[in-house]
Amino acid sequence: MGQSQMPSAVTYDSPFVIQDQPGENGRVLYAFVRGEDGHLYRNFWSGKEWNWVDHGSPQNIGVSSAPSAISTTQWWGRLQNAGSVIDVFARANDLNLYRMTGDGDYWEWDPLGQPQAPLTGKPAATEYWRLLDGELRDATALIYVFGRDVDGELQLSFFDGNIWAWFLHGFPSEHVSVADDPGVAVYDFGGRRKLYTFVTGSDGHLHVHIGDGANKRDGDGMNWEWADQNLPSQDNRGPGTQTVAGTPAATVWTPNRPNAELVQGDTMLLAFVRGTDGHLYRNYWNGQTWVWFDHQMPQNSDTHQNTSVGDPAVALYEYNGLLRPYVFVRGDDGHLYSNTWNGQNWVWFDHQTPQNSATHQNTDVGDPSVASYTHDGYPTLYVFARGRDGNLYASYWDGQKWQWRDQNSH
Which CATH superfamily hosts domain 55-408? Predict the structure, then answer.
């Protein structure tokens, strides 16, 4: 299963109650996925049942990449003021990047064009709110959509609240190109808000492109610098010799209990990436410096054999009073695995494989996407992944154990 089959999950706080999808307390859970026909599909929980919607394709041009969905605050004519909308970004067969915007009830496609060197792979999108003396500077969010182009350079499609524009962000360093799709996170530290875009390089290193929007208003709104995070080590004692690959996943974690890994401040920036040795690695800022940590490999609960991991997806979830990161990966054995902090150690869990509701046969899964949600009044996580049989599946925590659900095909 290729990257174009990856879903993108997002929760959305609707500005109004939508008749056929009230969700729970106005919050709706969406999973977007590209179909084999080049259409974009949405799987959503109405508050009573799961439904599929076919969003077609932009200008009848087939979608060619996996989607990237975010919930953001924008001025939109439908709302008549600044409000919450969903933005979904995907590349199409004409090589242009497209944006689908919606409020849950009405959706529209807009072309964002393409940079001089066309994009390849999946885009990574985030909203960004600038701070000035600790206060929000903008009435609506700025939107940053990063992608890797065919020359191996990092490209940016930027929305300043009025117009979209393309900006070339180049190579991580001389003779080093971007090897795979980016992962992004916004991090506040020391009174500054910065945007971090993590990529794996052709040199096997993890690289990060850091944007600081504190004092710049023109162009793409940031001052930028590249940093080489080097290589992870298997003894967790600094940079090593193990190369990394694939698409990183990043998040910001504010532990609500004492954590020995956090040296200064109250918040950590975490970037997870797979190694070419099949291990899951974490590169994190501990308040003073960057540190590497080897999470090893998960073990198949049936065969008791270790398995290499795919590209990670990460979300935060509070369980038993402890806020913890959950990192989800596909194993080479087709199982879904999670790695999480239990307050003392990082532990692996085998979610095994889902069962097709029609054939009752288990199926391997592809790389996952995860979103937090409140279901029947209980906070939980939903992890979506495509099965080898073409169906979309969800692994979710029901309050006592992890369950699989066949979302069926669209």
Answer: Fucose-specific lectin (2.120.10.70)
Question: What phi and psi values does residue 75 have, to the nearest 5 degrees?
Answer: -75, 125
Q: Provide the pLDDT for residue 1.
A: 47
- CA-nearest of 80, 40, 79 to 56 is 40
Task: Tell me which residue of 40, 20, 22, 24 sits closest to 32, measured CA to CA.
Answer: 40
SS3 12: strand
89-107, pLDDT tens digit by residue?
Answer: 999 999 999 999 998 888 9
* Contact between 92 and 67 (Cβ < 8 Å): no
Please report, for residues 118, 346, 348, the alpha-carbon distance to residue 150 in angstroms, rounded to integers and kept in the order given.
6, 37, 36
Burial of 275 (0-12, 13-18, 19+ CB in 10 A): buried
Residue by residue, DSSP assigns 259-285 as -TT--SSS-EEEEEEEETTS-EEEEEE
Whole-structure pTM value: 0.94
**Domain regions of the chain by residue span:** 55-408
By the 10 Å C-beta count (0-12 exposed, 13-18 middle, 19+ buried), 356 is classed as middle
Q: How far apart are CA 119 and CA 299, in angstroms?
A: 36
